Amino acid sequence: MRGTFLCHGIVWNAAGPRLALASPDGIPAAVDVREGTLLGFRILEAGRFCLGSHRVQGPQARQHVPCPLQVPAERGGQCINCFLNDDLRFLHDAHRSGAAPEGLRAYLAQPHWLYVATFASGTSKVGTASDLRKRLRLAEQGAVAARYVARAEDGRIVRVLEDMVSQQTELTQAVRSAAKLTGLQAPRSLAELDDINADHARTVRNLLARVELEGFAAVDQTWELPGPGRRVIGSDSRTAYPLELAAGTHGLLLEALLGSIALIRTVEGGPAYLADLNGLKGRRIELGPYQSQLPPVQVSLF
């Protein structure tokens, strides 16, 4: 695929991870980012641009609306106009305020799962996933170990539980992408990460046992790390890609993906690096036969 696009970042679906794109007139496109994909591109302009907004019609239906102004992003990947017109802006506060558009209410009415996810460094978080994206959500997050600790009747109840867990335990509700990448440069063993996750999940289930709230049931289900993620964390490569994705030209030969973090080489048989492809989110790029111009390696004489 060639052409100019606005990059919407890495998304996961049943077919695997894809780099989501949109043409200048807003038509969606995507590039598979599986093993063997050669992703060549150049950054067209500095800065991040608005990704538009969403209209939610129900659990499986939503419409993306491109930014009519195509202006730089101001808040969370959006301009202020698109932010104010985005149904998803109500998502994380609807259980407190009760305010949500009708389509989002229909989305929230489906069953949701409460999970505990642990990343390569051992950092852990509590989070939620809709029933339809139960497993894909954790793959998209870049978790290494995870367990589902509750199934709730709807998205309101699960977010009440999420708030309670983050208030009464050491678990946060977010882990930054930069921290995930740093963790992969010095990861703990899979066995250690699973033990950490199991301990946190046990703490949360013990907490849930004392909760006087209807509409949920505690569960004990283990999520399985997909094969590509195992290849990333099992790789001997611990070096971050030495170029800034926000500028210049790049040619990335993809080997595996963990969340949005790719194990890549710039030439076949060359050294492997770790690169967070969500660094392209909001960037205007041109796809083509571009290559990475890596800085020279300084070799010590002593």
Automatic annotation (TrEMBL):
Pfam families reported in the protein's UniProt record: DUF2797
Protein name per its UniProtKB record: DUF2797 domain-containing protein
Source lineage: Bacteria, Bacillati, Actinomycetota, Actinomycetes, Micrococcales
